[in-house]
């Protein structure tokens, strides 16, 4: 039973559209993460949060933004989608640095 | 720059074979190494290793960490078709995990 939920599971949108990928967890974890995953490539960290009102950019330059208004919710927004944003986006959370991640099922985004 | 390198990148074996997947890492302020299995959806947690030389086992899977040589291996014995997946290795330091590209394992009947 997944304790971290991502919606939508799949999304196809046109260039220039604004989209928000949702991520929610029920475990009360303070630390949440967004990774981008392309076939045959490493997972790249794009954003992370240590708690409410705390967000940081990751190692991979990204045109997306995130917010953390509630502990359980960590949405990612693309203001103007482009074909280069086509990828799988994985959300994860963990209790602290001594534990591993729990991942959501991912959102596969295609921008046409 | 931190990096995690996995080898081989892909592997095809027959059911019943034993496989060894490799992971080397260079992670500043290293704390732990983690293995995940990814099928079609979310990566699922397999092992977390923090101490050198102590093997962790779960059924047919086992893993060990060598902090002196900066690598880890994941062994799968008596492979089954259900073991077909991408196996991800990640090095944990401070704020986040650094992942390798993964090893794509295909187990044929």
Give the helices and strands, then pairings:
The complex is a heterodimer of chains A (112) and B (109).
Chain A: E1 4-7, E2 10-13, E3 19-25, E4 31-37, E5 44-51, E6 54-57, E7 64-66, E8 76-78, E9 87-94, E10 102-103, E11 107-111
Chain B: E1 3-7, E2 10-14, E3 19-26, E4 32-38, E5 44-49, E6 56-58, E7 61-66, E8 71-76, E9 85-92, E10 97-99, E11 103-108
Parallel strand pairs in B: 2-11
Antiparallel strand pairs in B: 1-3, 3-8, 4-5, 4-9, 6-7, 7-8, 9-10, 9-11
Task: Give an overview in words.
The complex is a heterodimer of chains A (112) and B (109). Chain A has 112 residues and is mostly beta strands. Chain A has one domain: Immunoglobulins (Immunoglobulin-like), CATH 2.60.40. Chain A is 0% helix and 49% strand. Chain A has no helices and 11 strands. The mean pLDDT of chain A is 92. Chain B has 109 residues and is mainly beta. Chain B has a single domain, classed as Immunoglobulins (Immunoglobulin-like), CATH 2.60.40. Chain B has strands at residues 3-7, 10-14, 19-26, 32-38, 44-49, 56-58, 61-66, 71-76, 85-92, 97-99, 103-108. In chain B, strand 9 (85-92) and strand 10 form a beta hairpin.
Largest sheet of chain A: 7 strands, mixed
Question: Do you know the CATH architecture of chain B?
Answer: Sandwich
Q: What share of the residues of chain A does DSSP label as strand, in percent?
A: over 45%
SSE ordering of chain B: EEEEEEEEEEE
